Amino acid sequence: MKNKNTLSIVLATRNEEVNIGRCLDAIKSIADEIIVCDEASSDRTVEISKIYGAKIIHTRHQPNFHLTKNIAIDAATCDWILQLDADEVVSPELKLEIIQSLKTKDYNGYWLNRRNWFLYRFLTKGGQYPDPTLRLYRRGYGRLPAKDVHEQAVVKGEIGHLKNDLLHYRDTTFEKYLEGFNRYSSLIATQLQNIRVNLFTAVKYLIFKPGFVFLNIYIRHKGFVDGKAGFVFALYSGLIWPVAFIKLWQSQLSK
Using CA of residue 206, residue 208, residue 209, residue 214, what is the dihedral sign? Predict the structure, then answer.
């Protein structure tokens, strides 16, 4: 009888030589196959991935990284898929829980709690923990819509929730954070393309939206508990909206 517990680890990468080894080292013992879809990395990402026996798929850079993730998802051949980012690490406790979850007949997918690193610590408040993400699902039952940078996979059928943490070393420096800030603000500007730039929308996105987001994260969701890191995170989470709006305004002026 065919084993129904095999696991594909799938990743999309672009210049992740600093992170990819740590990520793959944490899951190599439970992976029946590793698939890395790489967006023309200019560093050692592919070379390091091959050390772990990864199957490499080469593709062009996509503005929406989820399109590349779907290529990796579609290439998987095992019964279950665990979709990871290169800057994530499966904790030892989560690894054991994943092994047990693959034996279930009750669920087609699982939410994982994610613990996010920001500058010098893991965030515990500000709506950043637990940060549930839908990453583990049966092959053929889950896929990303690839419409929004913060979207979750869509999984058919019943979904469970694992208890242990996926560690996300997202923003280890402020410089790295600003790189993502720039990408995400550009993507938001694209999503706002049908909005007309006028006095009303300027006040909304330059003043009210960033203020609301900051207060929601820092006060309502107690981001202040995380000290200076919590303040900076809340502040820039709000500031991404005026930056995106200004990019939108610039694009409309150039037409």
Answer: positive
Query: Which position has the token pair 């002026």?
Result: 253
pLDDT per position as a tens digit, 216-251: 999 999 999 999 999 999 999 999 999 999 999 999
Beta bridge mates, 32: none
pTM equals 0.87
List of domains in the chain: 7-171 (3.90.550.10), 174-253 (no CATH)
Quote the tokens at residue 125. 């408040």
Q: Is the dihedral of CA 200, 203, 205, 210 positive or negative?
A: negative
Q: How far apart are CA 183 and CA 150, in angstroms?
A: 12
For residues 38 and 75, the answer to whether their CB atoms sit within 8 Å is no
Measured at the CA of 152, the angle between CA 74 and CA 4, to 5 degrees, comes to 45
Q: Which residue type is seen at 233?
A: F
